[in-house]
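hiii so um. not sure if this is the right channel but i have a protein structure encoded as tokens and i wanna go backwards to a sequence. like what aa goes where. can anyone help
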């Protein structure tokens, strides 16, 4: 018997969230693959064998938890994602201990730590800290003021309306990217908006909000803003942090 279309119920799972699939699940899968590759190149010895086995178990468990999250429905999100987050924390702790035990080189351990930290921050900012606002619902929560083009004294032409700045609560960059995307088209202004919300931000912090450009593009834009004395940088290279010039 064929069901009427109106009687069908569509159940949305986290696997249908393209952002989650690309920025959490696939990155977790890639990270676990790299961990196994590094371990395959690590020389086995009585000193390293236990650490290597524990890391493998943790990495496999983390991948398993990430797979389970794809099947989560809306009412299961919080509990399921917390389990996954715990798996990431456990893996990060295990890798840190292996670094101290000199089983994993310091530079490789730092790379793993950076990737795990980025994953957890993205997960927390976008899915655990507070629920995002669907773009279709923005009109219910944000009502931009109408902008009337101003006449110029030269001829009958009009000037383009000034872009309205978006105000994000201090310290909150949890994909209020909706706000940044919907009302700011200038890349420099978008970056400054993020920096105003979170001073001392890293490039990775900015890239978590402004996801439609690469980190290299963000770096170039930041360098331009620094030259214009609109942004200040503290620290060097991977330890660089950026703030709006007061």
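sure thing!! here u go:
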């Amino acid at each position: 018997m064929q069901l009427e279309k109106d009687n069908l119920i569509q159940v949305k799972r986290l696997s249908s969230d393209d952002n989650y699939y690309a920025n959490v699940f696939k990155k977790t899968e890639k990270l676990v693959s790299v961990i196994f590759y590094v371990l395959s190149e690590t020389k086995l010895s009585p000193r390293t064998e236990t650490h290597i086995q524990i890391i493998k178990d943790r990495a496999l468990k983390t991948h398993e938890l990430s797979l389970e999250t794809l099947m989560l429905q809306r009412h299961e999100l919080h509990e399921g994602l917390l389990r996954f987050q715990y798996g990431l924390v456990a893996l990060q702790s295990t890798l840190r201990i292996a670094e101290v035990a000199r089983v994993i080189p310091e530079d490789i351990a730092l790379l793993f730590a950076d990737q795990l930290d980025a994953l957890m921050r993205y997960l927390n900012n976008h899915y655990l800290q507070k629920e995002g606002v669907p773009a279709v619902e923005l009109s219910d929560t944000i009502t931009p003021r109408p902008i009337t083009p101003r006449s110029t004294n030269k001829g009958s032409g009009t000037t383009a309306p000034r872009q309205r700045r978006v105000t994000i609560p201090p310290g909150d960059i949890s994909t209020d990217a909706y706000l940044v995307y919907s009302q700011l088209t200038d890349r420099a202004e978008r970056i400054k908006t993020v920096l105003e919300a979170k001073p001392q931000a890293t490039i990775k912090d900015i890239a978590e909000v402004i996801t439609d450009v690469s980190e290299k593009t963000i770096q170039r834009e930041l360098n331009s803003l620094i030259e214009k004395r609109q942004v200040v940088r503290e620290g060097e290279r991977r330890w660089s942090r950026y703030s709006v010039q007061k």
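oh and The first strand starts at residue 231 and ends at 234.
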